[in-house]
Amino acid sequence: MKPLVIPIFISHQGCRHRCIFCDQYTITGNARVESEPVTPEAVQTTIRLWLQRPRKEKKQRVQVAFYGGSFTGLPQQRQRELLESVNPFIRNKEVDFIRISTRPDYIDETIAGFLKEHSVSIVELGIQSLHQDVLDASIRGHSVLQAQEAIKLLKGKGFIVGAQLMCGLPADNCARVMATARKTAELEPDFVRIYPVLVIKGSGLEKLYRDRKYKPLSLAGAVALSCRMKAVFDEQNIRVVRLGLQSSAELAEKVVAGPYHPAFGELVIARNLYKKTRKILQSEQGRQGKYLHIAAADESAFRGPDNTNIKRLTVLGLLENVEVVFNKDQARNTVLVC
Ligand code: SF4
């Protein structure tokens, strides 16, 4: 069951410089935050409001997530105030987890110890790439080694660790993206988010794009690459919890170029299912009277947008003499033939 996530936006707070692709005010849809940094009182009010909302399941775990900035780059006193504002809810067992996002170079032994003391259990790191040229071209300001060490350190201290990766950054290419995915998987983060780069109005990347020094991925290219990245993590049983930025009217309005789609994740899941189905049906070609079993929850992904997957499989002749069965009890993202 997915946890109830209570978002607290700290857009760009703690960031000592601006990465070339980033504009958190647009990404989080929170334009106000720069002038009005969230107070501990406001954090508590937000948590109370969310806890009052009716929940589908009483047992649903609750997570308070500080989003959109570099939490451990904030002055320690401010970090303490914000975390201590959540701690009473942890003690009352109304909130189960505190999650923060930060940069790899803002993590060390002391910081990890401080987070532990203040009941933080989930840390998301903006890894983006594990190729130094890509990090440098994206003005990330940290090294590949720092990213790898930060994941190892946090894992070693018992945190649940998330890694945010991007594809389509300046100086990036398919080989670098796939190498990043494989190296990240070797570090065994608990979950991953994959974000294809969008050119957002007001970001440094917009200037590069307008000067014709940066070419974004096409939508089809981003879907294919994200699908290949996801397969690396699927193979290692590492959950990919997000594919593409959360869509919003504000984001759609501010995207200047790049592979934006309001349901990007579904496009990737549909492609993934298509590739799995094609592979399994090709290996079974020649066998008569087959039943293809798909999870009922995957029906629309199996069909693909505008039935594209069905049309492709039909053109390849792979659906001849095949009856497709959608099973309620089947695990998602599985394809079986019998
Ligand atoms: S990507 Fe992260 S570190 Fe860079 S500017 Fe955005 S929020 Fe700050």
Walk me through what this model shows:
This protein is α/β, with parallel strands linked by helices and 338 residues long. It has two domains: 259 residues, TIM Barrel, CATH 3.20.20.70; 59 residues, no CATH class. It is 41% helix and 20% strand. The protein is built from 13 helices and twelve strands. The chain has a seven-stranded parallel sheet. The protein has a three-stranded mixed sheet with strand order 11-10-12, covered by helices on one side. Strands 7-9 form a two-stranded antiparallel sheet. The longest helix has 20 residues.
Main features:
TIM Barrel, alpha/beta, binds iron/sulfur cluster, three-stranded mixed sheet, 338 residues
Concise structural overview:
With 338 residues, the chain is an alpha/beta fold.
Describe the SSE topology.
Blueprint: E1 4-9, H1 24-27, H2 40-52, E2 62-67, H3 76-91, E3 97-102, H4 109-117, E4 120-128, H5 132-137, H6 144-156, E5 160-167, H7 174-186, E6 191-196, E7 199-200, H8 204-210, H9 219-235, E8 239-243, H10 249-254, E9 255-257, H11 264-283, E10 290-295, H12 299-303, H13 308-315, E11 322-327, E12 335-337
Parallel strand pairs: 1-2, 2-3, 3-4, 4-5, 5-6, 6-8, 10-11
Antiparallel strand pairs: 7-9, 10-12
Helix pairs in contact: 2-3, 7-9, 9-11
Iron/sulfur cluster binds next to loops.
